[in-house]
Amino acid sequence: MTTKVPLAEKMVFSGGLLGQNMLYSFMSMYILFFYTDLLGIPATTASVILVVASIFDACLDPLMGMITDKTRSRWGKFRPYLLFAPFLIALATIVCFWDFSGSSAMTLVIATVSYLLWGMLYTVCDTPLWALSSVISTDPGERTLFVTLGKIGGTLGAVVITVGGIQLLLAFGGERSTQAYLYSAIIIGIIAALSIFLTGILTKERVAPSPVKVSFRQNLQTVYKNKPLLTLLASLLIVNLVNGIRQSIQLYYVVYVWGDAGYATQVGISLVVGMLLGMMATPPLLRRFSKKKVFILSCVLGSLSCILPYFLGDHNILTTLVFFAVSFFFSGMTTIVSTSMLLDTIDYSEWKLGFRGEGIVFSTNTFVTKFSGALSRLIIGASLGLLSYAENQESTPRLQNGLSFVMFLLPALCFLAAILPILFYNINDKQRRQILSDLEHTRSL
After folding, report:
1. For the chain, which has fewer Cβ within 10 Å, the N-terminal or C-terminal residue?
2. pTM for this one?
3. 175 — phi, psi (to 5°)?
4. CATH assignment, 12-204+215-444
């Protein structure tokens, strides 16, 4: 028997993702710039800090997934973590953007430790928050709608920061003021913590965990014996670079190519229009076409929408913003369809192995997201190094051309490369219906 999820509960989940993505986007967009241009950390060194910390943190994600899969409480498997972790990550965010005005060595130590702590606490929130979508209902349609609303909420959170982040900084002194970043981090941290906490309080887990105890070794089989999951994760590792690269390079791009940090607001508007339209267009498409075909088509068209503005010239700001919106439209499509495919791999795991392993599946997805983010920062750091970037330097044709290449051609290549692994994804619509039918029969016994 399928279960319906109340609209209020869906809205609360969407709000939790909105707050979480406000936090993540603020960190992704501004931490590197804060390190290089406010704290005076060399670009290469700052990139190394972010990459090493992100990789270390990402390696802890599967462990967090297995911990949540073993969690049993009156609150459920995932909700308990949403009741305390949000306030800790808000505090860590504030520390990350706090200029302690110490020596260069002390600044490096504080930056490294605080960012590492932030990433670990983010995992404690992120894995349970997304895994909640797999136990909210037994109805695939409800889960897809739940995830879609969550992704829309997350996109709105990213947009709030993309559009309003620079305005918040300007209100507190501008992008060259350390106090502006600190005050902004306090406000965003509080909003995020409260929204995630409310998700933990007001949602309900409706798919009961299996009474059979699963060992850590067996739980790992959810990943390495799940071919559809492995191919999907490989594709996500690549396609996540599209937004990861753009988030990290965006402020540099609008400052040094378009000459005004305020243009970040216009880019944010392009993002919200494109991503939301792409997300809303995806569920109807999935009712007519296979998920695999929708994913591949969105990658092809996404790549094309990145290539065109580079060769047509990106100094026409209005035209470039339109192409941004189009490329974000296809990013929105890949976001929804890939998450829907991820839920299918959990059903596949239960069908093939006898246990779902929601926690480790979503934590592995978080691992891939973070590893992709680390690669994005590594790419940005290497690019800035190759361009001989120095903080607050004059804009030169060489720097502008280099930033345009990173902003457009690299995402285009990522879109295309993401198609290769997904060609081996083998859950088709017929098999998915059979899996759901078999699972419904098994659960009724």
Report:
1. C
2. 0.71
3. -70, -5
4. 1.20.1250.20
